[in-house]
Amino acid sequence: MDTVLILLLGLVIGITVGLLGVGGGILMVPALSYLLAMNQHLAQGTSLFIQLPPLGLGALYAYWRRRQVDWGAGWVCALGFFLGGYFGSLFAIQIPSDDLRALFGVFLMFAAAMMLRRSGSAVSVHKTNV
Question: For the chain, which terminal residue's Cβ has fewer other Cβ atoms within 10 angstroms, N or C?
Answer without folding.
Answer: C
